[in-house]
Amino acid sequence: MSASQTIAPYLPFLRRYARALTGNQISGDAYVAAALEALIEDPSALSAVSQPRVSLYRLFTKIWNSVVMNGVVTPAEKGLPAEQRLGSITPKPRQAFLLVALEGFSEQEAADILDCDVATLRTLVEESGRELAAEIATDVMIIEDEPFIAMDLEGLVESLGHRVLGVARTHNEALALAKTKRPGLILADIQLADGSSGLDAVNELLRGFEVPVIFITAYPERFLTGERPEPAFLIAKPFQPATVSAVVSQALFFERKARRTERRSA
Question: For residue 70, what is the domain's CATH number?
Answer without folding.
Answer: 1.20.140.160
